[in-house]
Structures are given as C-alpha cells and as structure tokens.
Amino acid sequence: MFVTLVVSVALFIFTSTGVSGFDVTTSTPDVRVKENEGTDLKCSYSPDFGASARLEWKFHDIKGSQTYVVFDGTPTTSYAGRVTMYESNLRMSKITRQDNGLYSCEVSGNGKFGEATVKVTVLVAPSPPACKVPSTVTTGTYVLLSCNDPDGSPPPTYSWYKDGVLLPSDPSKVSGFKNATYKLNPQNGNLEFPSVAKGDSGQYYCSAVNDAGPAQSCKPMQMEVRDLNIAGIVIGVILLLLLLAVLGFVIWYLCKKGYISPRGQSKSKPNVVYQPPTLHRDLDDGEFKQKSSFVV
Q1: What residues contact residue 198 under an 8 Å CB cut-off, 6+ apart?
Q2: 279 CB contacts (<8 Å, ≥6 apart)?
Q3: Can you state the percent helix, strand and coil of the chain, rounding each to 5?
Q4: With 0-12 CB in 10 A as exposed, 13-18 as middle and 19+ as buried, what is 242?
Q5: Is the pLDDT of residue 282 over 60?
Q6: Which of 173, 204, 243, 273 could form an S-S bond across to 295 if both were Cys, CB 3.0 to 4.6 Å?
C-alpha cells in the first residue's frame, strides 16, 4: 500500500510538472524576429544534472557551420558584445540576417547529456529582385528567365507576370493556361520554356515576396520570339560561295600571269662568276690596260 502511494505521488508530480529525469526543454522553439531587434532564447533543464551542470549554446547556420555562442556558461568572444546570459537563457541584441539558423542548448552533468533546439528566423523584407530576360529568342529553342533576391529572409517566393497578367505556377490547373508549356519554380524564381513559341512573346517581370515586408518587383522587360530566318541563312551561304569562287579565280589568274609561283616552286637565280682583271693592249694608243668582267 505504501509503495503504491509513493508511485502515485511520483506520477502525479511527473504529470503536473511535465519534467522527466535529465530533461532539457525550451519554451521558444521557433523564434521570428526583425533584423536589428533583440530576442530571448529560453532553455531549462531538470535538477538531475546537478548543481554544477555544464551549459553550452551552439549556433548552426544555414550553410552547416557550427560555432559556440556560450561555452561553459560564458559567452564566447565573437558574441560577448551582444549576448548575455540569465539563468540558462540566452538574450541576443541587434539580430542580423547572419543569425538565421538553429541554436542548441546543451546541458551535461552527473554523466548525462541533454539538449533543446531553437530555430531563429530573422525577418528581412525582400529587395527588388535581379531578373534576366533575353530580348530575342528563336522559336523551338530552350529559354530560361531567372529571378533572384539574395536579401529577403526568410527566402522569398517568386511570381512571374506576362503583359501584366500573373502566370500560375501550375498552368495545367488553370483553364486559360492549359496549352502553356512553361515551367515555373516559385522557390528559385526560374521560368523555363522547353520549346518557346511565338505566342510567348511579351513583357515579363518577376515579383519576390515573404512575410517580412511588401513584395518587390523588377522592371518589365520585352522578350521577342522570332522564327528561324531560313532565307537569310541561304543568302549568306550563297554569298560565301561566290566570295570563295572570286578568290579562287583571282589566285588562278595571278598564277597564270606569273605574279604568284605555284607552291613548291621558285624562280632560279642566275649564277654570276667574277673574272680577275687581265692586261690587254689598246689598239689605238698601243698601251696595256687592266680589264675585269663578270660571266653569267
């Protein structure tokens, strides 16, 4: 009877407090805070860890890196200026978008370990996104229109407009767009045309939106879809062939007239032999004179 009473009291205490042995919990599992404002990350643990329990806070950013915020109960150097501890809670001032990520409260003591995780989302309104729209494309080719805003937090979702009309992300579900062949990704902002058609010509712009502020858009840009210019290509080929024919005739004519020697041949140079000077008698005055000559 006594044992039953003890067990019942223990169960009552466990149920009423909601704390089990060696337990670490948080009352702020999901924190959303505007940039440059402050917030509290709360953590509590059961007394089973002991009076000398070791407490640490770690930060895991969205890229996967991990750093200490609090080590052995003391804020680290990089956080000392804007982080304070009260009990086991963390108070952060002037949150920036670089603080987006997961914060883990880790407690160890009496040979046990426990942790609780807090997700922090820094709210930053989107900026006008950078849009890339080609001005001229050819029918039947693959075309990509891109839209990106690196500032918004949480990451914004994207919408595309053509001639001021919103393009549905899934055109097959909208009666007026069932014949459309584009693919729209609201998460990365890409608008793809696997095989662009003449009817896809128009003015395009993109809009980025999240729950931190109003939507932002880029300037509308014109995209013109043109048919492949077969006639122009044929004329260009004919002109090239005529040019090659004229060039060949000119080379043939110059070779025929001797202005250009055929490849591998060269004009022979005459051999000139120098004859040393000799004496000969002039018939007019009877004197001997020197005479030199060159023999070819």
Answers
A1: 139, 225, 227
A2: 288, 289, 290, 291
A3: 20, 40, 40
A4: exposed
A5: no
A6: 273
| CA distance readout (Å), 191 to 25, 42, 156, 161, 217 | 44, 42, 16, 10, 15
C-alpha triplet 216, 102, 127: angle, nearest 5°:
10
Residues contacting 66, CB < 8 A, separation 6+: 58, 59, 60
pLDDT tens-place string over residues 243-254 = 888 888 788 777
Reduce the DSSP state of residue 234 to 3 states and report it: helix
Instruction: Report CA 270 to chain centroid distance, whole Å.
Output: 72
pLDDT above 70 for 292? no
Residue 281, SS3 per DSSP: strand
Which residue's structure tokens are 């949480």?
A: 154
- Residues 226-239 pLDDT 10s: 987 666 677 778 88
Q: What are phi and psi of 240, to 5 degrees?
A: -65, -40
Instruction: Give the CB-side neighbour count of residue 251, counting CA atoms within 13 A.
Output: 8
